[in-house]
TrEMBL record:
Transmembrane segments: none annotated. GO terms for biological process: DNA restriction-modification system. GO terms for molecular function: DNA binding; endonuclease activity. Residues 7-112 form the Restriction endonuclease type IV Mrr domain. This is Restriction endonuclease type IV Mrr domain-containing protein.
């Protein structure tokens, strides 16, 4: 049996997402059958609400060299019925036999064969591009220091991310890592300024520049309340709460650029451009642009790779106790 192309299945999932109008779209979903409760995998599933009722769209996709025959249609019909799919779709990159098309129509299964770019699409916004430049940002926290205060005295100290951040009554607000992530986001919302800096650095240093900044967040609050960390008092040797007066985060923003070559086609009446490219050493990015007859276009993308490559941990959690002795007075 020909091997299914993951790239093709992902393309169909991304196109479905762009056409779904708010429905939740997932790829390679396991659904329970109505008769036995056993799970069956569906290539793409879209779940939305139509007239107040939940609608489940099941899509099976094949990227085979030969046209798909009636056997696949019959197998899919049984599978879709057992799963209770409201809308049933089969997508074949190579098309369907005449018998398969007639049978699918009789069963109420929609068949789609993505087509090549058509003459009316030539010259449109998306089709004019033969590649797209994708920028991926990773924010790496280098150091997070907490400024604590008690009775007017302050102390600045680096702590692990798994230290609990507490309210005045001792209940937990979050972990320090979450507070640090929030602070970093406040300083990294607008990457356009960074991009301008990178463009200048590209010309001067050949694209090897990195962005270093320090996020300084005075008097952090959670739900409008002051927050604290727990530590040992030098005076009494007992645990006390120390108010967090400030959190100083030093972080590094690194940009990776992928040059994505684009091909063009048509899917169920929608023109699209798509491409796949490596993103760094061990990740990939897949982009899909769609365009309406009026020239409006939208974009969906998918990143695949190790979690550390795409979204590295913002700060080490460490292995120290949750109430570190290091915070002291």
């Amino acid at each position: 049996m020909p091997k299914r192309s993951n790239e093709f299945q992902r393309l169909i999932a991304l196109l479905t997402m762009l056409k779904a109008e708010g429905a939740e779209v997932n790829e390679s979903v396991e659904l329970e059958t109505l008769d036995t409760g056993r799970k069956r995998e569906v290539d793409v599933v879209a779940v939305g609400t139509v007239a107040g009722h939940i609608a489940v769209v099941g899509i099976e996709a094949r990227d085979w060299k030969r046209k798909q025959d009636v056997q696949w249609v019959e197998q899919a019909k049984t599978k879709f019925d057992r799963l209770g799919a409201n809308v049933k779709i089969l997508v074949s990159s190579s098309g369907f036999t005449a018998d398969a098309l007639d049978t699918a129509k009789m069963y109420g299964i929609k068949t789609i064969t993505p087509g090549e770019v058509t003459p009316e699409f030539v010259g449109k916004v998306v089709n004019r591009a033969d590649h797209a430049e994708y920028w991926h940002w990773i924010t790496l926290v280098k150091k997070a220091e907490v400024v604590i205060t008690r009775d007017g005295a302050t102390q600045q100290q680096e702590l692990p991310g798994n230290v609990p951040v507490l309210y005045a009554d001792g209940s937990e607000s979050s972990l320090l890592e979450e507070l640090v992530n929030h602070i970093v986001k406040q300083h990294t919302r607008n990457h356009e300024q960074w991009e301008e800096g990178f463009r200048e650095a590209d010309a001067l240093y050949g694209g090897k520049a990195k962005y270093i900044a320090t996020g300084d967040a005075p008097a952090p609050r959670s739900k409008g309340q002051k927050v604290y960390v727990k530590g040992l008092s030098h005076a009494t040797g007992e645990e006390e709460l120390f108010e967090i007066a400030n959190v100083i985060v030093t972080f590094e923003a690194v940009r990776t650029v992928a040059d994505v070559p684009l091909t063009h086609g048509e899917y169920d009446g929608t023109f699209y451009s798509t491409g796949l490219a490596p993103l760094g050493d061990d990740a990939t990015v897949q982009l899909v642009y769609t365009e309406s007859p009026d020239g409006d276009f939208d974009l969906a993308g998918r990143l695949d790779g190790s979690i550390d490559t795409l979204w590295p941990r913002s700060m080490p959690c460490g292995s120290g106790p949750s109430s570190p002795d290091a915070v002291s007075r």
